Amino acid sequence: MRALGVEPGDRVALMLPNLPQVIYYGILWAGGAAVPLNPLFKAREVAHALDDSGAKVLFAWDGLPGRRPRVRPGPGRG
Questions:
Q1: Which residue blocks in the chain are alpha helix, DSSP H?
Q2: Predicted local confidence at residue 76, as pLDDT
Q3: Is the separation of the CB atoms in 34 and 58 below 8 Å?
Q4: Would you say 71 and 42 are in contact if contact means Cβ atoms under 8 Å apart?
Q5: Pairing of strands 11-15, 33-36
Q6: Which tens digits make up the pLDDT trace of 9-60?
Q7: According to the model, what pLDDT value does residue 74 have?
Q8: Does this model's pTM top 0.70?
Q9: pLDDT, position 70
């Protein structure tokens, strides 16, 4: 997480199914705050959630064919 620039207090979005994930604990270890997102969100819903939460990084599960959202960088998402 630190290599990705996650610092204490940073929000990191998770778009994963309800499975135990090492990523979640990595976020906590780095001092970040996990922002869970529904893996079935459409691109506009993902974009809104990222903008609203201020998430710095997004980890997404690509296990659902055709469900990989295309989200463009927005304000604060270089």
A1: 22-29, 43-53
A2: 57
A3: no
A4: no
A5: parallel
A6: 999 888 877 665 678 888 898 999 999 888 888 889 999 999 999 999 988 8
A7: 61
A8: no
A9: 60
What are the tokens at 29?
Answer: 């270890």
- Per the CB < 8 A criterion, the answer to whether 70 and 60 are in contact is no
Return the ∠ at Cα 5 (arms to 16 and 73), rounded to 5°: 65
CA distances 67 to 6, 10, 22, 30, 40, Å, are 26, 26, 23, 29, 7
Residue pair 34/14 in contact by the 8 Å Cβ criterion? yes
And the tokens for 71? 């989200």
Give me the amino acid identity at 19.
L
What pairs with residue 12 in β-bridges?
Answer: 34, 57
Structure tokens at 31: 């001092």
